[in-house]
Amino acid sequence: EAAADFYHVLQMDSNRLFGNVVTGLARCLSADESVLDGGWHSLVKLLEADIPRQEESLRRAKELTNNNADGTAKHHADTLKHMHHAMFQYHDTKTKNVSEAWKHLSKGNEFKMSTLAPFDEAFEIDKVSRLKSVFTEGFWPADMGSE
């Protein structure tokens, strides 16, 4: 029943607002392909048509904002992450095509990483320093711990 619901939402969601629906459906199909009429073929056909459209939408969103942190660009990148990870599951569990599976896993992870803020080393060092400063002698009661 979950697979049918996921597929229904996927068909109704032409703007791909709910990217994790793709992941949910892929998980259902990985467990039992017969849960959806057409099995993997139904999802793969949709993704093969949608991935290029989403990539184009992401490219346009980046051009308009000239900033990957823009909400629209993040949305498209997140959607593409879900789509490529679903294709990874398909090739990993159904076709056993390792090179295609790896290609989609890598692509999905690229889109995932593109939505993360750059690592702020100074902030992280300060955060750890502040955290450590809390744990001074006397922080714990004398009778706590292994000693």
Describe, in short, the structure shown.
Helices cover 72% and strands 0% of the residues. It is built from 6 helices and no strands. It has helices spanning 2-12, 20-31, 39-65, 71-95, 98-114, 121-134.
Q: How is the biggest beta sheet arranged?
A: none
Strand/helix succession = HHHHHH
Structural class: mainly alpha
Shape: extended
Instruction: Please tally the β strands and state the result.
Output: 0
- What is the mean pLDDT? 89
**Residue runs with pLDDT of under 50 for 5 or more positions:** none
User: Over all CA atoms, what is the radius of gyration?
Assistant: 22 Å
Head-to-tail CA distance between termini: 55 Å
As a percent range, the share of strand residues is under 5%
Count, helices: 6
Describe it for me?
Helix content is 72%, strand content 0%. The longest helix has 27 residues, at 39-65. The model has no long low-confidence stretch (mean pLDDT 89). It is mainly α and 147 residues long. The chain has helices at 2-12, 20-31, 39-65, 71-95, 98-114, 121-134. It has six helices and no strands.
Structure keywords:
single chain, 147 residues, mainly alpha, 6 helices, 0% strand, extended
